[in-house]
Fold this protein.
Amino acid sequence: MGFFLNKSDAATDQNLKEAYFTASQGQLIRARYKSNRTAMFAGWVLTLMILLGFFSEFLSPYEPTMAGRDKKYENGPPQIPKFWDENGVSFRPFIYGTKRERSLKTNFRWVISIDRQDRRYLHFFVEGWEYSYINLDWDLPGEAFDLDVKALTFSTHLFGVDKGGVHLFGTDKSGKDIYSRTLRAIMTSLKCGIMGVLIAFVLALVIGGISGYYGGWIDHILQMITDAIRTVPPLPLFMALAAFLPQEWSAEAVFFVISSILGLIGWPTLARRIRTHLLSERSQDYVLAAQLCGASSNHIIRRHLLPSFTSYIIVDLMITFPYMVRLETALSFIGLGLIDPVSSLGSMMQNVSKADVLLNYQWYFIPVIFFIVFVLAFVFVGDGLRDAADPYSQIKK
């Protein structure tokens, strides 16, 4: 019996070895990534946050704009649904009604008091304001760029209350729902980062690839351009941009310009790394063999040189993305990026810089927590993908 078990184990090991040596690069990267528990957890967190942002309209009971504000619940604390209290148990979650009145203790400032006798029950899949998952309502400069296309329009939301409002993360000074704005801000920052990364990635591949493969005078000219872009300080650039942007431009136009500028100034670092690698790899034997076989320069760069350092490209992309999000957040935080009524993580973090918020309205910091988790998830996923794409990562450890 032991002989058959050992023989079976040997056959299993042989099959595993054959599967390893016959696996594609994508399968090997996927297997190594799954063995990294930290990266897997960060990947699930990142996926959850992306889904929260994508389905923000469905998950939000109110429109996260000035039009959906609750004047009777300004600077209101978070309302946490309950299932029981001193009045008994309820199978349906509920919140308490509120009253807004002036108090002597706060020098006649408006304060919100809770009425524990007034239960307001949550309902699921309620009808509310309309939203579209395909909404190309762009009012860009020039009539040729104006778009107004809407598709997949719905009006169903996950939850709501029978009367009044429900604010899971509280409200700000104008009564806007922080929960709805936070979910919308995740998607806004995500779209801004994706657009910036795509522009930077394409420019880096083209410029870095041409510069590193051909060398010579082409390399000198392209590196002069790269160095010139690297010396441009982003903060003065956006300060000048904010001064010259027309005030009548829509939020979509400002978003498009901010994302484009982020991409146009974010490609030099990746382009430099691609150039350095191609300069060292273009003299290898496999490149010479491909040239002797009649392969074109585009084919050699695309099929032989770029795949040889996929891990570097992956980690640069995953690190560049949170950098783009942080830059957009920083610009919006100082008032040079996206501002109200656009909901972005940076524009929402503008309110936390005041001492009054730190002392009295701590729920304003909830978007800050989402921003930190969002950036850290990207960093850990990028680190895990880098180790998975690098075949020597386990040997180095």
In short: The chain has a mean pLDDT of 78. The first strand starts at residue 82 and ends at 85. Residues 79-166 form one domain. The beta strands are 82-85, 88-103, 109-138, 147-161.
